[in-house]
Amino acid sequence: MTRLxxxxxxxxxxxxxxxxxxxxxxxxxxxxxxxxxxxxALYFICVLTTFFCFAATFAVFPTPAAKTFGPKYGxxxxxxVVFGACFTSLSNYIIVKVLKDKIEFTGIFGIGSGSTxxxxxxxxxxxxxxxxxxxxxxxxxxxxNKYGIPIxxxxxK
Length: 157
Description:
By secondary structure, the protein is mainly α.
């Protein structure tokens, strides 16, 4: 359901807005989740919004990866995003195991919130644009006519 909703919204408003909203929801959620630990209904809402944001990430990332890095390397970049999610889960486990006695869960929530703020700042610099000239110089673009027949680039002008 999330993938359908965020996919539709991506077509309407674009990656930067969708992902910024997702990050802001995640940031708010990290604070509310800590506060809601004694209120089961509110905690459940936090868990649902966490899953919503997680699914939204995987729904919207393939298209900007393909737009930014081209069709040939977009899938590889998206694979790195998936690997990054796996790595993040592993690093979260290690951080909790090592630091929970030293900084307690409040500090761990602070680390999570800080990394979300960092992601929001990085989002400000993201430019979803296919650099056709650079990709063409590197030989990563295959030029075709509207029927899919390969053509020379000079025929485009």
